[in-house]
Here is the input.
Amino acid sequence: MTTTTKIPVSPAVKHAVEVLERIQKDIKNDSGAKADLKRVLTGEPRYQRAAYPIVLRYLSEQDAQYNLDQWLWVTGFLAYYDQSLTSERKTTFGASARRLKDDNNSGGPERRFRALLETSIEDLRSPLTSMVRLMKSKTISIHYPQLIVDLKAWNHPDQYIQDKWARDFWSAPKPDDSQSPEEEESA
Here is the structure.
């Protein structure tokens, strides 16, 4: 049984899809560009600068000024673990992390996720990258457009993104729409 949270497609998510699709198309057959984006995940400034020509041309002035790190991370994840950007599975990172926890018998994914929720945006790259690597190893889907939108709001004083992720991570699994009522009762 798979848990997915249906997320309404906001204008911000639509914009993220458009930008990420352009970048995905540009790097599809360019192993050098993919390598530059993957190296961004190390956090070294020289690797970030190498990715600027790939990413900056698609960002608004506001995104380039205030959210460049988050765009670089997500495009680095996209180069590392390519995903469909328009798939039907539009989930939060919390829902993807829940699938990771469900696929793992140890408490490691939950400990990592708890720590992730308490991490400031300045220190988020490394634990987020670790979670993405684990998700790739288990072939768990990540909805990158929603991830970029969420990361842009990570520092909001109400921490509504962290709350949304936490609810998706710890909520009871939703019944799969393909099950019949009899199957749901016996589950």
